[in-house]
Amino acid sequence: MKILLPFLGVIGIVLVAFVGVGLLNLQYLFGVIIPYTAFAVFLAGVVLRILKWGRSAVPFCIPTTVGQQKSFPWIKRNRFDNPSNNFEVIVRMALEVLLFRSLFSNTSTALKEDERRLVHQSSKWLWLGGLAFHWSFFIVLLRHFRLFMDPVPASLYLVESMDGFVQLGVPVLYWTGLILLISVTYLFIRRVVITNVRYISLPNDHFPLLLVLFIALTGLIMRYVLKVNVISVKAFTVGLFSLKPNLTQDLGLIFYIHLLLVSVLLAYFPFSKLMHSAGVFLSPTRNMPNNSRRIRHINPWNYPVKVHTYEEYENDFRDKMKTVGLPLEKE
Amino acid sequence: MSNLKPDELSRINYTPPEEDWMAVPVQMRKGMYCHGASENSLTTVGFPNPRKWSSADTDWKLPDNWQEIVLKGMAERLEKYRSFHIFMDICVRCGACADKCHFFLGTGDPKNMPVLRAELLRSVYRREFTTAGKILGKLSGSRQLTEDVLKEWWYYFFQCTECRRCSVFCPYGIDTAEITMIARELLNLLGLNIEWIAGPVANCYMKGNHLGLEPHTITSSIDFLLDEIEEVTGVKIEPTFNRKGAEILFVTPSGDLFADPGTYTCMGYLMLFHQLGLDYTWSTYASEGGNFGSFTSNEMGKRLNSKIYAEAKRLGVKWILGGECGHMWRVLNQYMDTWNGPADFLQVPVSPITGTVFENAASTKMVHISEFTADLLKHNKIEIDPSRNDHYKVTYHDSCNPSRGMGLLEEPRYIIKKVCNNFFEMPENTIREKTFCCGSGSGLNASEDMELRLRGGFPRANAVKHVHDKHGVNMLSCICAIDRAALTTLMDYWVPGVKVIGVTELLANAMKMKGENDRETDLRGEPLSGAQDGEEKEDSEDA
Fold first, then answer.
1. Size of interface A-B (CB pairs under 8 A)
2. Is the bond leading into B253 cis (omega within 30 degrees of zero)?
3. Which of A126, B101, B270, B379 could form a disulfide with B354 if both were Cys (CB 3.0 to 4.6 A apart)?
4. For A287-329, how does the pLDDT look when each residue is reduced to its tens digit (9 = 90+)?
5. CA of B469: how far to CAs of B106, B423, B428, B432, B454, in Å?
């Protein structure tokens, strides 16, 4: 059920586009209104969410230290796993966000039943799958800007030429499209097959994976199988991006399906766990230096508390303290 | 002690049940949880809802508006703690944390996977505080806050030792310790604490330490240790208490005064400071380094911690030296200055022996004993005979908090390597920042939850067993008072033959003192291996 519902949801989206455009000819709704609305929801949602997080205080300096602290010059410290200043924090965050450093150190533990021994081994599949997924998704997105902009910036051609794989006739096959499809499939299968991961998964863990999977699939079909007319698509998307949408072109049903899937992803994004992409930058266990003994961290809502003072303590125990000769404030 | 034999207890099934976790109601199993907080303990510090109750009862005597209290508490904390807010929102349930928790590895209970432990709270958060949760309901993984849910929280948030191991592996740094701390604050709003925490908190508030040692008991406990030291070394030591004008205030967990093997570590402090001629004082008012208050609420942590600076100010010391303790150093490193600082009445700590300025403690003015000692050894200020520890084959357990809440990894190792000839590390993925908890941290070191503790300590014990089998390790060293108590029980159960020792005890064994006699035993009264050899020779001659 946890998997079936999200699957049906994605299929439903495809069907809606199929019916809406293929049968009802609602091109303007699906080509203009929905994408614009989705993008507006995405932008506003993300901004509001970040503002909401930003309004929450950071009362304590609580980095998770994953290496040697800075103490003496003769003890080698671990700068980027236990940063002691803001520069080192930036490097730590960069390594985390760009290379998934924490996941790189992932281990998996197994109990050797016969000898009752726990074995902890390095496990890099999740790291590899995750990294491949995010980077290929990012580059595919970047490449799409060729369709959004006219003229195309020179740097984009560079990305494309590096991404070009083998020329199997026309069009050129891109590495990243393929990697995206493989990695998102891996992430989905992993979630279904590994029992503990399946157990912790919610419908809203399966849904975005399936959504991206279908986005990638429709994109690849459009490019390599049905070979939609890129010039018409570009004319439309450039119009969309320059806020002068024109629907004079015949774009093909598959394009509308792809576009609706993307629109749903955009609108869904701010309300879902996909916000981890922004949240990771604000995570106090990662984005703070471990320097709270050297520089005082201020808690904005620090307030005075009721304490048991020395005076009260001495009043409670004066006689006993006197017997054993402890110095007193009042005899 | 658990009725189950180690062989049975280590038969662990990691496969989750068929039903969805939300459909499986909490089953509170005896041996896996602690007694509820007593009326008395809660009243002493003014905690809410003090009453007679038992965690084993069905009726927990909650206030009528308990849901409102919890939800209001959540709303307040979402604004007060960005950590909490973000950690509620951004988990993708990738599962990287799942097999990192010692309680999951020791029980196989899926709700001990850090991700699910957090989901216990998140499911309610989603329903009450998110748009998606309100619209999609159960489909978004949300649920209502019922009494069963509350009991589930209580059971599982007191099955987390706030060790932060999961946070090391989480790609977003989601820290279950943080979530557990908030969850315990929420439970505390309803008087749902455990007595093993609430009792020490009340003690510490009124008497200055968790054990409730009154001033005259503290001095007599130390007198007893001084006699022991004199017996072993022939050196007579006279420390001072509550002395104004001392250069340094020394604060250590009260557990070190109370029971062995912690007392041996305490003897180590006394011997080291005497040998150095350190101008320092103990305090009976600030006689606790640890902070069980931090296991109930931020506010209580602050109330207890305040005594350290207050006493340093009253006595007019220059800086503060802290003993070996785990969560104490999480608090001192990440909370104390923020709570009760600025300590502008103190000076940047300088070692009077080596002249080293402890720049890393420039603001808190509080130095860790291992930093202090490592610096002494680096400058050859103590004469060491490591062969006095030759009867020990030593390994080292990184306490969770100094490793993942501070990064104090090399200083203790530097000391151990200087004072011992036989040192063996446990496997790489079980030490340093990846260290496994003793299973009894964050106030769970009671006796009624022994099965939980033994299970939680299984991964740690398992790694010790590895070096015990491979290298004949017979001594597990650490820098934590709870470890010294908890690991001893753990070793007796899982790896008999391995004892537990504080790093400062190892140091004191090896340290040559002015005017000492020819030492024949270590601090525990056990013959040194040289002396032992001698005896054995005599024995063989007799035969």
1. 316
2. no
3. B379
4. 999 999 999 999 999 999 999 999 999 999 999 999 999 999 9
5. 21, 14, 16, 21, 20
Complex ipTM over 0.90: yes
Residues in CB range of A321: below 8 A, 6 or more apart: A314, A328, B215, B216, B284
**B287 is written with which tokens?**
């006689």
Mutate which: B338, B346, B351, B369, vs A, most A CBs within 10 A: B338
Per-residue pLDDT tens digits for A215-240: 999 999 998 898 888 888 999 999 99
Q: Where are the domains of chain A?
A: 4-323
Q: Which pLDDT does position B535 carry in this prediction?
A: 42
The domain segmentation of chain B, as residue ranges, is: 6-30+48-192, 200-510
Residue B338 to residue A320, Cβ atoms within 8 A: no
Cα(B212)–Cα(B205) distance, integer angstroms: 9
Q: Which of residues 468-527 of B touch A (CB under 8 A)?
A: none
Please identify, in words, the CATH class of the domain defined by A4-323: mainly alpha
B141–chain A Cβ distance below 8 A for any pair: yes
A302, B338: Cβ pair inside 8 Å? yes
- The count of residues in chain A is 331
Q: d(Cα B450, Cα B444) in Å, to the nearest integer?
A: 9
pLDDT tens-place string over residues B66-116:
999 999 999 999 999 999 999 999 999 999 999 999 999 999 999 999 999
- Indicate yes or no: CB of A65 within 8 angstroms of CB of B407: yes
Average pLDDT value for residue range A209-218: 97
Residue with the bigger pLDDT between A162 and A243: it is: A243
- Which residues between 64 and 103 in chain B have a beta carbon less than 8 angstroms from any beta carbon of chain A? 78-87, 89-96, 98-100
Task: List, for residues B181-230, the tens digit of each pLDDT value.
Answer: 999 999 999 999 999 999 999 999 999 999 999 999 999 999 999 999 99
**Whose structure tokens read 């998704």?**
A137
Pairing of strands A117-122, B280-282: unpaired
Which residue, among B362, B359, B380, B288, has the nearest Cα to B328 in the 3D structure? B288
- Would you call B404 and A66 a contact, using CB atoms and an 8 Å cutoff? yes
The C-alpha of A42 sits at a distance from chain B's nearest C-alpha, in angstroms, of 14
Spatial distance between the Cα atoms of A96 and B273, rounded to a whole number of angstroms: 44
- Asked if the Cβ–Cβ distance from B83 to A195 is below 8 Å, we say no
Positive/negative CA dihedral, B330, B336, B342, B345: negative
Tell me the whole-structure pTM to 2 decimals. 0.95
